[in-house]
Description:
By secondary structure, the chain is an alpha+beta fold. It is 58% helix and 7% strand. It contains 26 helices and 7 strands. The protein has helices at residues 5-20, 31-48, 50-56, 66-84, 89-101, 107-114, 121-128, 130-140, 147-161, 173-188, 199-208, 213-228, 284-289, 307-316, 324-331, 335-348, 358-365, 367-385, 391-408, 417-434, 457-460, 468-478, 483-493, 501-518, 525-537, 543-553; strands at 59-61, 234-237, 240-248, 251-258, 261-268, 274-275, 279-281. The strands form 2 sheets. It has a 5-stranded antiparallel sheet, with helices on one face. Helix 9 crosses helix 10 (173-188), helix 10 (173-188) packs across helix 12 and helix 19 (391-408) crosses helix 26 (543-553). The longest helix has 19 residues, at 66-84. The protein starts with a helix and ends in a 7-residue tail after the last helix.
Amino acid sequence: MKASPTQLKKLFEHSHQILRLYYNKEKWPIIYPSITQLAERFVQCYSQQPGALHAHLHFYAKHQGYTTNLVVNQCILVTAICYALKFNKEITESLVIAAISDQICTSNETNKLAAGQHLTEQAQRLVQNRHALAVKMLNKGNVPTGQVQRILARLDKYASAITGINAIPLYDNPSIIVAIAMRIAKAITPRPKVKTFSLNQAIKSLYLSCYNEFAQNALCELSAQLFAHPSGLSVSYKNEQCIVLAKNGNIHYLALMVENKARRIIRTSQPIFGDYRSQIISDPILLYKIWFNEQLPKNEVKALDDSENLESIAKLGNTKYPDFKQLEKVVTNFEHIEQALRTAAKQYNRQGQKAGSLRHSLTMVGLDTAALLCQRVLLETMIANISHPFASDIINKYAHVNKIITLLISKKHSEKFEFYLCPFAAFIYFLLHQHPEKVMRFIQLDEDEFSSKPLSIAQLFGLKDYQHDSLIDYVSNYFSESFSHRALLNTETKTKSQLNDVDKEFVAIKYLAMTTLFDIDLGTPWQKQTTTDVLKHFEWENIDVFKVALLDLSPHCVIE
Length: 560
């Protein structure tokens, strides 16, 4: 979809139509598909015209009701925060869906409240319980259980807990984003007899009364995003009232306003000073058309593309003509890999020699290990570049897997560190790339204690299930010649009777990572026995001894 005045207008019209679907039960089955399509349009429109949507945060579309304006503002704010935090399309759309669903069952009631009208006791209960009802509706529509339901279930609690006298720990970052958008949207959307905050006042007030570090960071990034695209700002230019349309370097593009209507576009390099304020607008030119004028600079947000890195990873794993020259040719395009190789070379040679060149590093590390090391460093860079609501949690879990592998092989086969760690980096990248909206902080537990399938790496990152076919294709495309990647793949797709000894080593690593990270009994009896056997193979007496040694590797906390 290409953004246009028609598409921008449809965002309002379709938002209004979707908010009316609740009042016709025959339409309930199409509510979720309709919300999904609308969320996709918001994200697409924002990626092409962020300024146009920012301007609407200062406008109240007169021909639409309060609830429609409120929901549109929430969607714009969620999208702006997600783009500011560099979240991808899938995550952003899932959060916009939650923002739309906030008022899906109470459009009439919210309009009445905004107008200062009295609600019946039943209507008041409906408003108070609207999120629980929305979840019930979504579940009846066979909507996949996941992030949207989770956000709605805790949205009111999070919206109130973000501020207050006492700092309450909040762990679900996607819910924090939607709650922030809800708080700001309510503050800036005009209502009779209620003070309307300007956008900057709402953000400042929320930031100063907020204790949550993630929320504060999100508000700072949102402010920077709004500063980069200051559309909608009211300014005075040569004693004439104007509204900022766009900014390109030190050039500002202004709309001259006469009787609350846009008359012409002014281009100026003079410094401008303006103020943030909400305005009730009925002019269709200012609401929709002017943002696509040819005089305005084009500004499209570009998506991150990892295809070049993935192609390099595939080349690094090609063993048809394995030699150092081939590896060196691929690696020279990535300076950070060269530095990682120089660092790794020290731990792979007993004399601790300093690598004199890239070729020297490769020869000291060894051909097979160097290829896996290069792949791992590339994958870690790609993981770090994927912004995610639970980014720090993902990195911490990956670091824990690293620590498990380091300790496990410390007595025997320490040279196989890359053999075991690289596949985990590859699979974590797959989950973040293919299913980012499903990745959560909390793990998923097996319901069947006698399951014949091993624990999945996906469970560590909160996924109940994922597309195994996609994972098989991913490994086939980029790691087809890697014995270790295929072994980890086997533990994801095969049953216990189909696993070989190396596969079982990966089963044990996953079990050790989960059970030591969460200190709960996760595995089936055969997984526990497999882990015990693998520990003995690596010269560990039992799992308790291993856990004690793992604690010794952890940072010490001393309270004086």
